[in-house]
Amino acid sequence: MCTERYDGENPYSEADHLRQLAERILRVQKWLQERNRLGHPLRAFHAKIRLGVENAVLRFNGDLPANLTVGFARPGAEYRGVIVRLSNASGSIQPDAKRDMRGIAIRVKVSSGEFHDFLMTNGPVSHAKNGTEFIAFAEALAGSRLKLPFRLLFNLGPYTAIRMFRNVLRYACARIESLAEETYWSRGPLKWGPDRCGRVRFVPATSTKPNQPPSKDHIDYLRLDIADRLRGGPVEFDLLFQPFFDKEKTPIEDASKLWRDDVSAPIKIGRLIIPQQDLDVAEARAVEERVDRMVFNPWHTTDDFRPLGHINRARKVVYAASASYRLGYRFLTEEPVHNRVFGPLFRAGFRLLNVFVPWHRLGPKLGSMNLLGLRYVLRRENLIDTEEREAPPVVVPVPVQIPEEVLAGRTEDGRFNDLSVPRMGAEPNPRVGEPSPDPDHPPGPGATFGRNAPLDLVRAARRRVGAVAQPNPVEVSERLLARRHFIPAKSLNLLAAAWIQFQVHDWVDHPKTPVANGGSVEVPMPGGTTWQNTLGGPPEDRMRIAPNVPRVTRDPRLAGVPVFENQNNAWWDAGQLYGYSAVDGLRLREPDNRGGLRAELRLVDGLLPASTIFQDPATGQALEDTGFNENWWLGLSIMHTLFAREHNVVVGELRRAHPGWREDHLFRTARLVIAALIAKIHTIEWTPAILATPTIDMSLNGNWSGAPKDWLSQLGVWLVDAHALKGITETLPDHHAAPYSLTEEFVTVYRLHPLIPDDYLLTDFRTGRPQAIDLLTPDGGRVKTATADFWQLQGFNTRSAMKQIGLANAVYSFATAHPGAITLHNYPNHLRRLVRRNGERIDLSVVDLVRERDRGIPRYNEFRRMVHKPRVRSFHEITSVPGWAEEMNAVYGGDVDNIDTMVGLLAENPPTGFGFSDTAFRIFILMASRRLQSDRFLTVDFRPEVYSPLGLDWVRRTGMKDVIERHCPELSAHMPRNASAFAPWRPAGLG
């Protein structure tokens, strides 16, 4: 039987190893690139093309046996337009006379959706038994030839090294006569229908002899020979199939063992014909270049012809990675030698120092280097992939050409940010609740939320507490979270609270099942209390919470780990403003007078238009129309309006600079500019405002612009992390230890609801006095007042409030008010009795606690340990606020290990100047950089050719103050002089 045997416990275990082989092949290509002194990477193998044609013919025999008649292999079937590439096997460009093997790659097109790739070499066996040996040999070969034997002996042992050398020396001929006279064997077997498998080979059949045989000393004699032969007539090969006999004499997993013809006789089943042609004309040279850029992989086939064996399973991921690197779709950033030497010493030194002095009590320069070391450790140990690995591997279609507009612009759903893995970070299609996929892109799963917590910690958290274990989340909310009186964060203004919700809406959205659909998470109400789960519904003895919808996975690595899809794409692409599908784009963009779309976003009198989708049937009021308008309130309306206006200004400037650009091109470029501007504002303005210390200011400005230019900082960063000398925007994309995603722990630390006040004073920027407007009351009436509660400024009430007060007064009202401090006893009471648009009534603080437990977030003490902080032994080690330790002790029954992470983060004494805890900040250290570093539009494609010179300059010279001043110039005098736009503004009427 043609049965495969996987390395490790199961196919999933082997898949991890194969991914490591793919990473290693990139290093081989980089070494070869440096050794060949080229400005671009070559193929890891078969780099030097000797023939590339697109007009060959594959013809199956008319008497093809019935047991070999499978799929496209039919008696008498003929396929034209077959692509053939002949090459030398080395990864270096070297003379044809050098000792080497030779290879052939063939692509047969059966239909627009069915292709079959065959990759073969002119040796009946592989030098490598499996993929691991194959990559080890490639690594050894890429270095010094003198060191090759020693590397193989060290890496693979003497027996394997000798066998590999023997095979290579036997078949790597220095001076073969002609590529047309070589036999080419497949590397490993392949299926031939459901019940058969075997190897294939191409054997020389007929070819014209060259008129003038080239000298074998010529650097390109093989190319000259095949060209001369084809000028005189066709070159033909017979296709032979050698069936599997048994696992001993014709092994599936050992590609180095010869399948002897006397054991299993090959059967002639067809012929490959390369027709007569002149390879030296311009058209033929263009074809050859096109063929040379193609990506061949034996897994470009159908299930009937699936490749078998470890070496073939390795080829799938290795060849795909190698091709992506060669095409510039995948990148490799290696740690410099001096960082590998000095980095561990510095990190060990800082770990010892931090036992006595935490990083935030060091000076800015030492503190910044301390954070670089901590970020390095977090990147290595706290990025965990939760995508199900492909196991066993499956066949794949030939990759389609990536559209030009995708190379230089973001997609609505987040695909093609990473061109080597197009669905990395993408949203699902269709999204939950959507009836069908958009016609512009096929259905596909969304990216999952990754993890910062090791998976064993997540499993332990789920086993220990379940979703609603003790203490009761309602009791935790009432006794530790509920706002008793408003505690302001006086170093910030309320724009900072609106900003972070504006960002979170771009990043994360868990799929949920409405309570009305059943299956809710039920939390018993304590002490005989009741709760109305729907507006106007009956009192109940339990609170019902809409559950998140988990992803079903068969991957044993993820057993016991709750995995969820991110309904938003995870890239920093301003999706909350632009939407997540082509349908959103049609709705949000300004129509032109010819039935098309302009590049501008649609505004009405400078404000967001009313939504035609989200309307209140009782009052006729509508939400404002934008890319994402859930949990809508006046703060979000301010941010969306400002940046929709900014988009339109950027479009206008681009149109003047590039009058020939199409509207779609203008729109895509403006979106790039706005998304990058938002990322920059968050990195170097909002975060330093909420974490107001010189160390953070230096570190985050360094993230964007590079390390400070003084010699001491430059030397220190060069020793610890040389890549940080430049800003992330000048580096290559790097996902570090796992494919890019946002994480469940990231969602947890961004629960910053205490920032939201319960009541608001609406003021006139001219006088600083209250400005009364008509607001709804809960009983359906109206009242004219300048003092509004949260309910009156949220949901369907938002648009009316914005229209009455105007953007300038709304911005001023927020800029001169404070948000709440991120502490215990400051959770907004309006969010603890929030009514959703569907009528569900929720206590958001309880929902946060339940979701945290349900998603397997480690409890606070384990969370600390996870981010490399010491565990606490008592409640008093967490907080110095009088009475808080005693309150937590009472709620958690004296067990400090039982504290919910959200509660611990809110209670923890923050560093001086910080708006939240150091424990939460450690996730920020990791994920803030990751959102920039993984994104090609914020790294390798952050360049004028993509953004336009005007667009790139716009990002570099614009800040939040500039955005506000451009659209509300009347507010300029009130802005803080030497602080960010998120610091408190000067009220009107002050001298």
Q: Would you give an account of this structure?
A:
Keywords: Dioxygenase, Fatty acid biosynthesis, Fatty acid metabolism, Heme, Iron, Lipid biosynthesis, Lipid metabolism, Metal-binding, Oxidoreductase, Oxylipin biosynthesis, Peroxidase, Plant defense. InterPro entries: A_dioxygenase, Catalase_sf, Haem_peroxidase_animal, Haem_peroxidase_sf, Haem_peroxidase_sf_animal, Oxylipin_biosynth_metab. The protein is of the alpha+beta class and 991 residues long. The protein has a domain at 11-326: Catalase HpII,  Chain A, domain 1. Helices cover 36% and strands 12% of the residues. The protein has 30 helices and 23 strands. The strands form eight sheets. An eight-stranded antiparallel barrel has the order 1-2-3-4-5-7-8-9. A two-stranded antiparallel ribbon has the order 10-13. α12 (473-481) crosses α23 (844-854) and α17 packs antiparallel against α18 (694-705). The radius of gyration is 32 Å and the shape is elongated. The model has no long low-confidence stretch (mean pLDDT 92).
Summarize the structure.
With 991 residues, the chain is α+β, with helices and mostly antiparallel strands.
Features:
Catalase HpII,  Chain A, domain 1, single chain, elongated, 23 strands, 991 residues
Question: Strands, helices and their partners?
Answer:
Layout: H1 11-35, E1 49-60, E2 78-88, E3 102-111, E4 114-121, H2 131-142, H3 148-156, H4 158-171, E5 184-186, E6 190-191, E7 197-207, H5 221-232, E8 235-243, E9 267-274, H6 282-293, H7 310-326, H8 337-356, H9 364-381, H10 404-407, H11 455-465, H12 473-481, H13 495-507, E10 521-524, E11 531-532, E12 539-540, E13 542-545, H14 575-578, H15 582-588, E14 589-591, E15 597-601, E16 610-615, E17 622-624, H16 634-657, H17 663-690, H18 694-705, H19 711-720, H20 744-749, E18 759-761, E19 773-776, E20 782-785, E21 787-789, H21 798-805, H22 807-815, E22 834-835, E23 841-842, H23 844-854, H24 860-866, H25 884-891, H26 901-907, H27 918-933, H28 944-947, H29 949-957, H30 960-967
Antiparallel strand pairs: 1-2, 1-9, 2-3, 3-4, 4-5, 5-7, 6-7, 7-8, 8-9, 10-13, 11-12, 14-15, 16-17, 18-21, 19-20, 22-23
Helix pairs in contact: 1-2, 1-7, 2-3, 3-4, 9-18, 9-19, 9-27, 12-23, 12-25, 13-16, 16-17, 16-22, 16-30, 17-18, 17-29
Cofactor: Ca(2+)
Region (Disordered): 415-452
Protein name: Catalase
